[in-house]
Amino acid sequence: MEDLSFRHSTPRRAGGSRPMAIIGVVASGNLEVLAERVLADTDCLLEIKTAAPGFGEVWKAVVTDFVDRHSPGGIRFSVNDGGARPDVVSLRLAQAARLMSEDDR
Amino acid sequence: MSHSQKVASWYEASARTRVRLLLDPESFVEFIGPELRETSPHLRLFDLPEQFDDGIVVGHGQLDGSPVFVAAQEGRFMGGAFGEVHGAKLTGILRAARDLKSVPVLILFDTGGVRLQEANAGELAIAEIMRAVIEARTAGVKVVGLIGGRSGCYGGGGLIAGCCSALAVSEQGRIAVSGPEVIETNRGVEEFDSRDHALVWRTMGGKHRRLLGGAEFFVDDTVQDFRDAALALLASVAPFTVATLRAEQERLEDRLRRFGGCRDAVEIWAAQGVPDARSIPAMPADAFIAIADKLSRSRRDAR
User: What are residue B184's phi and psi, to 5 degrees?
Assistant: First the structure.
């Protein structure tokens, strides 16, 4: 296992009002993303526990791209990864951001 | 429920999706949700990834306007296996039902059995859950199992399912204790060839369990079918008494007398009077349900 952490500044707060969302399953080639609206509007934190050590640079690139696209200000993303490929990681992060952008029921 | 939700495949859905679509819309409230990070204390020691809910979703909601407790295993996380936290969450919800006496429990099984990395804790959890099921049923609570996930219902999950008030199973929902590979490893390939998938399905699959009386209902692989079955079972389960247990013992003895000499599930179906027993595995769900209902209405006085 390897633990990674990426902190970003974001230009704006993530839309929507949901306090929490979860997507995905921890399985081979898959991952779960837990999103929580717990940070200041200009902060974004991604904490990753991955079963595949040694891919920090790839994670950094995927996370940077995700933050640039979605500006998920105020959200902490916690990831449990079962060895997902970068495209699956991008998809799950985008799904989590999408869920958070919905209004709280 | 929208049309697409009604026909959604139970087998393909995640535990969370099953719960959301099974219950009345927006009614589910989770206990010990993923944000509490009540993860396994053992997996990290084995350098294995955790899941925030430890592979089981528990909570309460409404089914057709009535309150229910629900527990759903995620069969894709470690094969839906029972670890310490996973098991404790199911035990907790069963004990809550026991204390309240009036709210039924739906268990959405999807499990290969005990998680080997936390074997002792997992085995203890199975024993605690079986006791909790029986205590809840003794207090008057209906405990209904729904089985149709990719991991089936194996090992200790099969034992717990056997303790439930009633079960509904789909074709994909295999029910057994020892899995195919375990039997082959211990007894030899002559006893059970785990690579013979047709053999595995006709021995452990939902159709055979329905015909043998191990499951009360056989359902097609949709959320709507499981929902209808859960409502029908909750409305028809008999009270749990000594007479119930005696009737179950009698049912099992009778089954052994009638089919104990059979060498294959097909022989059992033929002995039961299925017209063309070999056609059962490939038969569509509605045709199979019609045959099964004609042959044997499940006994409602036993279990």
Answer: -65, -40
> Over A54-66, what HEC string results?
CCHHHHHHHHHHH
What b/e sequence results for B170-199 when a residue is b if at least 16 CB atoms lie within 10 Å of its CB, and e otherwise? Answer: bbbbbbbbbbbebbbeeeeeeebeeeeeee
**Minimum-distance CB partner of A32 among B26, B33, B52:** B52
**Amino acid A103: pLDDT:** 81
Residue-range domains of chain B with CATH: 3-241+283-295 (3.90.226.10)
- Which chain A residues are within 8 Å of B26, Cβ to Cβ? 105
DSSP state of B235: H
The pLDDT value given to residue B296 = 73
Test A25 with B26 for CB contact under 8 angstroms. no
The answer on pLDDT for B302 being more than 90 is: no
Which of B152, B302, B140, B298 lies closest to B213, judged by CA?
B298
Taking residues B192-218, what's their average pLDDT? 95
CATH code that applies to domain A2-100: 3.30.230
The domain locations on chain A are 2-100
pLDDT at B3: 57
Compute the mean pLDDT over every residue in chain B, rounded to the nearest whole number.
Answer: 95
| Low-confidence stretches of chain A (pLDDT beneath 50) | none
Residues 56-75 of A with CB under 8 A from B: none
